Known about the structure:
Distance between the termini: 49 Å
Number of strands: 5
Bound molecules: 5-O-phosphono-beta-D-ribofuranose
CATH class of the largest domain: Alpha Beta
Oligomer: single chain
Amino acid sequence: xxxxxxxxxxxxxxxxxxxxxxxxxxxxxxxxxxxxxxxxxxxxxxxxxxxxxxxxxxxxxxxxxxxxxxxxxxxxxxxxxxxxxxxxxxxxxxxxxxxxxxxxxxxxxxxxxxxxxxxxxxxxxxxxxxxxxxxxxxxxxxxxxxxxxxxxxxxxxxxxxxxx
Length: 164
Ligand code: RP5
């Protein structure tokens, strides 16, 4: 299955590139679209309703400010929806974080963090969801985690060598 990444504006995309890159690294196909809950509401609903037929298994929704994208998407699908609050001025993402995380009961949105970790973690969480039904992806996820661990340990070894 693939992942769909919706973003409220093309101005969000530069900070979402690591999300797309992470999915690509794990061999997960990703549809990335600029669609806004406020500016293109009908197109958002059309996209979400047609997503399962295209093989989309997880929907990622990135938006800043009064971020309603993830909530609107979650209201129109039974697929898992993960929200990525974008850290825009003037409120630095607190606005988008609260908009995304405070969903009413019955309309679930998983909310990632603001800042650089959010987009990458959204990709990894989507991968973990898809890996539940995809043993080959689960194996790649395990390799990714082992590789990440080894990179940190290598940095630690380099630091120890420098401090000698
Ligand atoms: C949100 O408003 C978008 O997701 C973006 O983070 C923010 C600003 O959008 P632009 O004015 O740059 O198009 O809906």
